Amino acid sequence: MTGKTKSIPTLTLETLLAARVGGLVCGVDEAGRGPWAGPVSAGAVILSADDIPEGIDDSKALTEKRRAALAVEIKARAVAWGVGFASPEEIEDLNILQATGLAMCRAIEAMAVQPKAALVDGNYRFKLPCDVETAVGGDGLSLSIAAASILAKTARDEIMITADAEYPGYGFASHKGYNAPIHQAALKAMGPCPIHRRSWAPIRALLSR
């Protein structure tokens, strides 16, 4: 029995969508929907078919060092790119799904060149400032979505590393706000800090004690 061959991202989905809408297409992806702390981030990227950095892939398939190097190349060589965030407070006010859409809108609005359509990872059709097409598993299929995933992930990681210095003891630089033993232990010892998502069940349980 042979293992499943991993797909290699291409520009096929973007090319088909661009022909349909008659304009530029950006890839969009998010990072940080699941953590207990910190913002949710989104990236948006329009790649140039003639100048694509080598090695772009789903951010989860790359090392932190490789993501950081590719983020620099993507920003330098893309037609346009943008990064957006929704804060922990906005996540509380809106819920995580709507906050993710807000971060995506901000990422697109931050682009120097506005797209005619967005190719978004997943199956939820967010309301964005352009046409929207979804792609399940898009970060492994679309180079633009994969590039967006890299920008979203690296930008959020930078924020959490900064937060580690501002709120020492939680280990944000290592786990980036996700569920981890060191994070659980810090919450039990110190309680939540201002960037924790207080509606999350584990945080809510601590606050209710």
Automatic annotation (TrEMBL):
Has keyword Ribosomal protein?
Answer: no
- Supply the EC number(s): 3.1.26.4
Database matches in SUPFAM superfamilies: Ribonuclease H-like (SSF53098)
Per UniProt, which keywords does this protein have? Cytoplasm, Endonuclease, Hydrolase, Manganese, Metal-binding, Nuclease
Residue ranges of every copy of the RNase H type-2 domain listed in the record: 23-209
**According to the record, how does the cofactor bind?**
Manganese or magnesium. Binds 1 divalent metal ion per monomer in the absence of substrate. May bind a second metal ion after substrate binding.
Which principal EC class is assigned to this enzyme? hydrolase
Q: Which reaction does it catalyse?
A: Endonucleolytic cleavage to 5'-phosphomonoester
The record's function comment reads: Endonuclease that specifically degrades the RNA of RNA-DNA hybrids.
Put simply, this protein is called Ribonuclease HII
Organism name? Brevundimonas staleyi
Lineage from the top down? Bacteria, Pseudomonadati, Pseudomonadota, Alphaproteobacteria, Caulobacterales
